[in-house]
Amino acid sequence: MADPLVPGPGIQNAVLRTSITDCVNGSDGSIDVEKFLLHTEEVVSRQRWATATVTDLLDDFGYDPPPESAPVEPREIRKRAPRRVWARKSAEDAPLELITPQESCWYVMYVSNVLIAEDSRMMDKFRVRFRLPYPNYLELVDAVRSHAIFDRWCGHKKNGKKSSPVELLVLGALRYLGRGWTFDDIEESTAIDHDVHRVFLHRFIEFGSTVLFEKHVVAPVRIDEARSNMHEYAVAGFPGCVGSTDCTHIITERCEFNLKNNHLGPKSSHTTRTFNLTCNHRRRILHTTDGGPGRWNDQTMVRLDNFIMGIRESTILRDNTFELLSRDSDGNIRKIMHSGVYVLVDNGYLDWSCTVPPMTMTNKISEIRWSKWVE
Question: Count of domains in the chain?
Fold first, then answer.
């Protein structure tokens, strides 16, 4: 009987005779089909020999394989323990009863409470706590429900479980953004797991920076769009003014080390991103630039502001005309007509005709009062 550990001469020769590289023609790099088939046959023979060798060894050691008809025990299915944030017991020996989000504090106060839409005092408190009027909150909830980005939270899940109430998820996102609560704090008020709020917040920010931004942050480029924003300024004595502009710094945590020095501005010890923002007197944002490093000052950011540069270059709102008073060489007051618009700024901006700052170096009481009024 041949030794099973030593392949026969045919197998040995097959292994030594060809390899996969021998199947390639050196002249043009093509594959020789006959050599490739021969090599494949030799590889299969080698595998069959190895299988037969292992089987003979198992027989020598007395290994008895199980019969093919042996029943296979089914795998025990372990059920996942129900996830709960709150729970209670009706009696000492009673099982735990899950407290649903519909029984949470916020759901009772702000979702199922019908009086909040009728009581002005409660609506005022809601606006202070969530930085949003209650009617606008209801509109926001409807917008979230109808958008495809929030499909995983709207309606029922595939396994039959109910999704977390979207009303509470929106409230959690507003409280996180408005007051800087942690997700654990929000879980305590909504009975929804903190990780659910975390995942929802990322989608909510994406929704706000795209859908809501394009819908509500609309810069006026025609005079009929700008007149509603110019009314308060005209009443206050600034005809032709369309808004107030300044740079806003937003703290950016976990900034990369190689970018840290560029994001440390002179106004904060934290790393920040700066945005040149224009709003009307009702605090509605009309336009904002993309974020820049916190070290960039007002004079740098204003050159990247398409809205301000459009006003300066007279590509937008150039059809507007307004009247200002001036004194001639004899001290007489006369009216001068101007075209275009301007914005109110502080003294960190460039000295352009469309950016009007208060006066810093003056001894005249009238100019001091005017500068205070601008501020």
Answer: 3
How far apart (Å, rounded) are the C-alpha atoms in residues 64 and 80?
39
Reported as a single tens digit per residue, the pLDDT across 158-178 is: 555 678 899 999 999 999 999
The answer to whether 100 and 163 are in contact (CB under 8 A) is no
Instruction: Please write the tens of the pLDDT for every residue from 52-95.
Output: 888 777 777 767 666 666 677 777 777 666 566 667 777 777 77
What's the angle, vertex CA 368, arms to CA 336 and CA 359, rounded to 5?
70
d(CA 6, CA 253): 67
pTM of the model: 0.64
Strands (DSSP E) along the chain, which ranges? 87-88, 97-98, 241-251, 272-279, 285-288, 292-293, 321-327, 333-339, 342-344, 355-356
Percent of the chain with pLDDT over 70: 88
Within-domain flag for 352: yes
**Is the distance from CB of 275 to CB of 247 less than 8 angstroms?**
yes
* DSSP letters for 127-158: HHHHSS-HHHHHHHHHHHHHSGGGTTTSSB-T
User: Beta strands 355-356 and 342-344: pairing type?
Assistant: parallel
pLDDT tens by residue, 238-280: 999 999 999 999 888 888 889 998 898 877 888 999 999 999 9
* Beta-bridge mates of residue 98: 87
CA atoms of 245 and 306, how far apart (whole Å): 13
- Per-residue tokens: 229: 């924003």
Residues 306 and 237 occupy one common structural domain = yes
What 6-9 contacts at long range (C-beta under 8 Å, 24+ apart), as own/partner pairs, is 7/46, 7/49, 8/49
User: Is residue 159 classed as helix, strand or coil in its secondary structure?
Assistant: coil
Q: Which two three-digit tokens encode residue 189?
A: 């008020």
Last residue of a domain, one of 216, 247, 267: 216
Tell me, yes or no, whether 231 and 368 share the same domain.
yes
Task: Give me the amino acid identity at 92.
Answer: E
CA-to-CA distance for 291 and 301, rounded, in angstroms? Answer: 9
Q: Measure the CA–CA gap between 96 and 81, rounded to whole angstroms.
A: 12
Task: Give which of 232, 242, 252 is closest to 312, Cα–Cα.
Answer: 242
The C-alpha R_g of the chain, in whole angstroms, comes to 37
Domain that holds residue 15: 9-60
